[in-house]
Amino acid sequence: MAINLQKGQRESINAPKFTIGLGWDTNTSSTGSAFDLDASVFILGDNKKIIADEYFVFYNNLKSPDGAVEHTGDNLTGDGDGDDEQVKVDLSKIDSKVSEISIVVTIHEAEARKQNFGQVRNSFIRIFDTATGADILKYELEEDFSIETAVEFGRIYKKDNNWKFEAVGVGMKGGLQDYLTKYQ
Ligand SMILES: [Ca+2]
Ligand SMILES: [Ca+2]
């Protein structure tokens, strides 16, 4: 059984190889255009900045240079239950300078399509053991977003040589650019 977290709660990840699953549903009819959400991963050092440009992993840069973080590919619609996009992590390969991994979901062309997270439903982040498939934790975002176009679903960070997950659930209204500015 996965542990269900509330916003702000933290939980240890006791698996060297795990997969981050991200899911959402959207209401395309509410805006008249397709809804494309994208998962992005910022791999950070102690200064809370990406350790190099290539450590921003997203649909156009699917793997970090150390091989530790791999995005499995872009999903254009979010249709259906279960994970819509996945990111695989192998902590045994992670660069020693890394102390945090931030997982952000943004809406592609949100401004042009007049879309925001207020129109997104059933969003969640979950983590499971890649080797066994066993669920480790899940966080369902229950926040009532209205103007946000980018949301940090969670972060994974190293503390005393253990890796833990924090359910974040905080958004920004400037899309992916807000997070690029924050972490670059
Ligand atoms: Ca996508
Ligand atoms: Ca979905």
TrEMBL record:
<dbReference type="Pfam" id="PF02342">
    <property type="entry name" value="TerD"/>
</dbReference>
<dbReference type="InterPro" id="IPR051324">
    <property type="entry name" value="Stress/Tellurium_Resist"/>
</dbReference>
<keyword id="KW-0778">Tellurium resistance</keyword>
<dbReference type="InterPro" id="IPR003325">
    <property type="entry name" value="TerD"/>
</dbReference>
<feature type="domain" description="TerD">
    <location>
        <begin position="1"/>
        <end position="183"/>
    </location>
</feature>
<protein>
    <submittedName>
        <fullName>Tellurium resistance protein TerD</fullName>
    </submittedName>
</protein>
<comment type="similarity">
    <text>Belongs to the CAPAB/TerDEXZ family.</text>
</comment>
